[in-house]
Specification:
alpha+beta; single chain; about 20% strand
Length: about 500
């Protein structure tokens, strides 16, 4: 048996496309070996039955030899016909052409799995076996940094060309997809985005290309993801999805059920940082997807910088998945140095990665941003603060010195103000000395806080918040602070909240 040597490398961000080997409702990718032992051309299982092996009956001893009918002439493979080819060549099968369109009543049945699994194309079976053998003696914590090399070794050894896998790019996002074919009003595809990250360029392209596809999305930060995604399809907003990051695959099932996502799901992308290392069980045999009746044909998943425990967890999952022969990794891409993860942009002379809408400020050593308040959150203390929490998991800003105060004032629109994290804690009585920073920082000494004349005063009652202003009035000049109630924050003279969070490291 040939041995495969792996060159181990260090990677910090990996995108992988997984494909369901045994789903009769999912499209078959085109894989061709070289030299061509077999040639398999796409036959969409949604409209075409699988060919039946031709097994001639064994003649009885007393019977005269039977004359086999002449086998139909095999058609030539046409590279230009990648989306709707209509023949399967040799390999013990007869010729299978695309039949007449199914009646509407039978279309739904065409997507239901038959009682037994269909045969997996030989090339995919061999690729799965090759990866399993390649990783057989590799320590589990080294499988993660070896996945790119292993795929290259196996694909090269088998002479595989993967023409049906399309790479879609949009901004800082990339997704691989085996395009659905032969869709109609009666036969739709379903595309699910778990994690929007303020970027729907690929989904918008798919919406135009696949007019008969349904789109469903969710993200831990509804602002601005919900408004971005709504033109495409249902968006589920609930903060409990953040518990996914702690390891709950139940939330994904809950999201799919809540938005009434049909099965099979042709494409699912998972782009929530922290989720990727805690959700693997959902795809295994007899896992949550099986229990809930969901079939996911293809899934793209972003693997962010792992620690040693995460690498070992990844290796355990990959080994088990390849042993089960249910899913197989088909495509992989490792992000290069100097890039940011999806949903983040380079800032501070390309030294730091900040979420969209934020910028790195050296005075804070953090990413900061000033955002218009959304009245749908409600005129309460939590309603204001949650608008930072739901925006890339940030928090109302902490300002400790004049340099930070000046940097923040420069971001507040003229004539407006921005709420900060200097507040009366919930449930405590108002007092001039009762304001505290939400992050637990100690209160700065004079000349901080830079209160405006007579501030704080609690003039209107319930003035538990503090805002920095960018206009002149009774509070004083630009950059001074005043206390105000949650109701007043939505007025014409404030209208914004200042948020802060740590930057993400550059991808190596």
């Amino acid at each position: 048996m040939r041995s495969f040597a792996l060159l181990i490398f260090t990677s910090t961000f990996v995108l992988i496309l997984f494909y369901f080997l045994h789903a009769p409702t999912c499209p078959d990718p085109i894989y061709i070996t070289s030299p061509p032992k077999i040639e398999i051309v796409y036959v969409p299982v949604t409209v075409a039955p699988q060919p039946i092996p031709l097994v001639p009956e064994k003649p009885k001893e007393d019977d005269a030899p039977k004359v086999e009918p002449e086998k139909p002439k095999q058609e030539e493979f046409d590279d230009s016909d990648l989306g709707g080819g209509n023949v399967i060549l040799d390999h013990g099968f007869g010729i299978a052409g695309i039949p007449e369109p199914l009646p509407p009543a039978e279309i739904a049945l065409a997507r239901k799995p038959p009682p037994q699994l269909e045969m997996v194309p030989e090339q995919l079976q061999l690729l799965s076996d090759c990866l399993y053998i390649t990783f057989y003696r590799v320590p589990e914590k080294l499988i993660f940094p070896s996945i790119e090399k292993a795929l290259n070794v196996c694909v090269t050894a088998l002479g595989i060309r993967d023409k049906s896998i399309v790479a879609y790019e949009g901004g800082d996002d990339l997704k691989y997809f085996i395009d659905p074919a032969h869709l109609s009003e009666q036969l739709k595809c379903n595309i699910v985005a778990v994690g929007i990250k303020q970027n729907i360029k690929i989904e918008e392209h798919w919406k135009q290309k696949f007019v008969h596809c349904n789109f469903f999305g969710t993200d831990p930060s509804p602002m601005p993801n919900e408004e971005l995604f709504k033109p495409l399809g249902p968006f589920a907003t609930y903060r409990s999805i953040s518990s996914i990051e702690a390891g709950s695959s139940h939330e994904v099932i809950s999201f799919l059920s809540k938005t009434k996502v049909p099965s099979p799901i042709d494409q699912m992308s998972i782009r929530i940082k922290g989720l990727e290392y805690n959700i693997w069980d959902i795809f295994l045999k007899n896992g949550p997807f099986d229990d809930a009746g969901f079939v996911v044909c293809q899934w793209n998943i972003d693997y962010h910088t792992p620690n040693e425990a995460m690498k070992e967890h990844f290796g355990v999952f990959m080994r088990k998945m390849l042993k089960e022969k249910r899913y197989i990794p088909l495509k992989e891409r490792t992000k290069t140095e100097g890039c940011c993860a999806t949903g983040f942009n380079l800032s501070d002379n390309r030294k730091h990665c900040c979420p969209t809408g934020f910028q790195f400020k050296a005075s804070f050593s953090n990413c900061i941003g000033v955002f218009e308040l959304n009245t749908t959150y409600g005129a309460t203390q939590d309603g204001v603060n949650n608008q930072c929490v739901d925006r890339s998991d940030s928090q109302p800003i902490t300002v400790k010195n004049t340099a930070q105060n000046d940097d923040l004032a420069a971001l507040v629109p003229n004539g407006k103000g921005a709420v900060m994290g200097f507040q009366i804690p919930k449930g405590e009585e108002w007092s001039k000395s009762g304001f505290k920073w939400l992050d637990g920082s100690s209160n700065p000494s004079s000349p901080f806080p830079p209160w405006g004349p007579g501030q704080p005063e609690n003039a209107g009652g319930n003035e538990v918040l503090v805002a920095l202003i960018n206009w002149k009035n009774s509070w004083g000049s630009i950059g001074m602070w005043g206390d105000l109630s949650p109701q007043y924050t939505y007025g014409n003279s404030i209208g914004y909240v200042a948020c802060m969070r740590e930057p993400e490291p550059l991808l190596k």
